[in-house]
Amino acid sequence: MPKGRMQNMGRHKLWRAQVKKIRRKRLRQKTAQERDALLEEECRRQEMSPTYQAWIAEQEIIEKFREEEEERLTIEKHKEWERIEIAAQQEWCLRKLRAEKAKKEREEQEVIEDSKGMGGRTRKDKAPGGGKEERTRRKTEKTGKSHISDPMIESKYNQEELMKEIIDFVEKGGERPAFASDVSETNPNMPVCPFFSKTGACRFGDRCSRNHPRPALSKVVLLPNFYSHFGMDQSMHDEYDTDLMLEYEDSETYQHFRFQFLIVCCEVEAKLCQYQIKK
Questions:
Q1: Is 231 in contact with 253 (CB distance < 8 Å)?
Q2: How wide is the angle at C-alpha 84 spanned by C-alphas 79 and 86, nearest 5°?
């Protein structure tokens, strides 16, 4: 068979394959269109049928009933919540009235007891220093025991005594309060850190292998990371690079620290003066 004829036969086979492919595609499209048309016709027929119309009406009624039921339940829950809230408020008011009444009766009883103990006086002594707290404090000082029946007054009295002891220790150099005698230690079984004992601070902090004893009350205030300088930061990060520190001098760093320290001291003193004036 000649070569040209064989090439024509090969082209004819390819053409027939393409034609068959296009024909199958058209048949699939036609079948899909017919199926869609039948479905649309079926849907229209169902929509026009009385049975479908009745089902639609029934579904609308059910949906409306469900919405009304949800609204009714919501209203009932809201009314129940209002009822519970009103009952809780009434109960709270009753408890408040009972507490006030009990407090008033207790105060009257204390006044009667105080009046019996002070020679038959029947009312409170309203002169300065003659109130219930002052009388209780005087009794405590005389007997050395607490006769305070009200926990709030007792707590207030204890706080006042505690603050008095702290102020005496910090400002007047008095004895250390009993509660401040305890010392917390980071490593009790290790020797004391020499840096911490001299300056009250250590570069390793609580990770130090030595012991850092800290009193419960001290006259020294430590402010970590209070002062920072670029030269100090570089010396810490590049402590093995000696050439870098040639750009900074210790005297300049010291002068900068001294200047900032004086500024902070002035501001703190001004704040303390304002606080004392307001107090």
A1: yes
A2: 95
CA 265/CA 147 separation, integer angstroms:
45
Beta-strand runs (E) in 185-256:
214-215
Half-sphere exposure of 23 (CA within 13 A, CB side): 6
pLDDT, one tens digit per residue, over 49-67 is 888 888 888 999 999 999 9
Higher pLDDT, residue 155 or 161 = 161
Q: Is there a contact between 115 and 122 (Cβ–Cβ < 8 Å)?
A: yes
Q: What is the DSSP string of 89-124?
A: HHHHHHHHHHHHHHHHHHHHHHHHHHHHHTTS--S-
Asked if residue 162 has pLDDT above 90, the reply is no
Instruction: Give φ, ψ of 215 to 5 degrees.
Output: -75, 155
pLDDT the model gives residue 56: 87
With both helix axes pointing from N to C terminus, report the angle between 50-117 and 132-143 in degrees, rounded to the nearest 10: 60
Contacts of 161 (CB under 8 A, 6+ apart): none
Residue 183 β-bridge partners: 215
**Model pLDDT, residue 69:** 92
* Model pTM score: 0.29
Residues 6+ apart with CB under 8 A from 70: none
Query: So what's the pLDDT on residue 176?
Result: 73
What's the rounded Cα separation, in Å, for the pair 185 and 192? 9
